Every structure is written in C-alpha cells, then in structure tokens.
C-alpha cells in the first residue's frame, strides 16, 4: 500500500466493533486506515422505503394490506435489531423471498391477470412458519438467519 499510496484507495467496511478489532490487529493498520465514516442503521420507515423502491424497480405493486403489513414488519425488524442487523441486505432478502413466494402462488392460478402476476400480497411476505399459521408477523428475512457480512448495503 505504501509504495502506491498516490494511486490506490483501499476501503474496508463492516460492523463497528469488528472493524475496531481488525484495525487493532496490526499496529500498521491504524496509521494506514485513518479516515473513518460511521453510518446509522436505517430505521423502519427507511427500510420500508427501500422495499418500495425494490418493488417499483422490478415492476411489482404492493397490495394495500401488504403495504401495511410490510411497514409494520420493517418497524419491528428495526426495533428488534441486533449486532447482525443487515440494513438494506435484510430488505433485499425479504424482497427476494417475497418474489419467490409470489411466483409459486401465481403459478397455481389458471389464467392470472397482469395485476396478479405483478402484485405482492401478505402471504408473499410471510415466512414459511407463518404460512402454516405457526408464527407471528415476522418478515421473510428472519425466516433463515444468514451469516453476518460486513457493512451496510
């Protein structure tokens, strides 16, 4: 890094505590990585806005009841977050699982309309346990916890 410092930018990103351990793991890192930026977690409303944006970008509409369900689920996701909270990554996981459930749901329709093909409903947003009536109102991202990856996405 030293030999090419005028031509090189290195960015490392991750959870605050883990990045602190990384920087302190080698005495030379602290002097080389000397600019720090901290980002607050997205709140429930911001998570919902990200979800709406993903839906719109991919041509999906949310049924009104699904919009209300998702807003509550993202508020709850934010309020119950822990050190593994993934911010927009968790929203992306909810979106991808919802699209997969929606595809399975509409595949069973004989002649689905364009609206049915592009609308996400509450069952599309619920995790598998909730589909069976076993769970509460958790968004699909919490159905299968994934290993934490560094940084806010």
TrEMBL record:
One annotated GO molecular function: ATP hydrolysis activity
SUPFAM superfamilies: P-loop containing nucleoside triphosphate hydrolases (SSF52540)
Sequence ranges assigned to domain CbbX AAA lid in this UniProt record: 65-125
Keyword check for Nucleotide-binding: yes
Annotated InterPro entries: AAA_lid_6, CbxX/CfxQ, CbxX/CfxQ_RuBisCO_ESX, P-loop_NTPase
Keywords: ATP-binding, Nucleotide-binding
Keyword Nucleotide-binding tagged: yes
Pfam families on file: AAA_lid_6
Annotated stretches, region: Disordered: 106-153
Official protein name in the record: CbbX AAA lid domain-containing protein
Organism: bioreactor metagenome
Biological classification of the source: unclassified sequences, metagenomes, ecological metagenomes
């Amino acid at each position: 890094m030293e030999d090419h410092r005028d031509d090189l930018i290195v960015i490392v990103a991750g959870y605050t505590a883990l990045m602190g351990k990384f920087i302190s793991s080698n005495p030379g890192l602290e002097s080389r990585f000397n600019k720090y930026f901290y980002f607050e977690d997205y709140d429930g409303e911001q998570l919902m806005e990200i979800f709406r944006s993903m839906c719109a970008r991919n041509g999906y509409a949310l049924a009104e009841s699904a919009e209300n369900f998702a807003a509550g689920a993202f508020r709850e996701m934010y309020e119950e977050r822990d050190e593994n909270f993934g911010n927009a990554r968790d929203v992306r996981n909810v979106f991808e699982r919802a699209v997969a459930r929606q595809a399975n749901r509409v595949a069973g329709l004989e002649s689905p309309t364009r609206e049915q093909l592009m609308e996400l409903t509450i069952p599309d947003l619920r995790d598998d346990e909730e589909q069976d009536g076993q769970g509460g109102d958790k968004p699909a991202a919490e159905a299968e916890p994934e290993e934490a990856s560094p940084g806010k996405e």
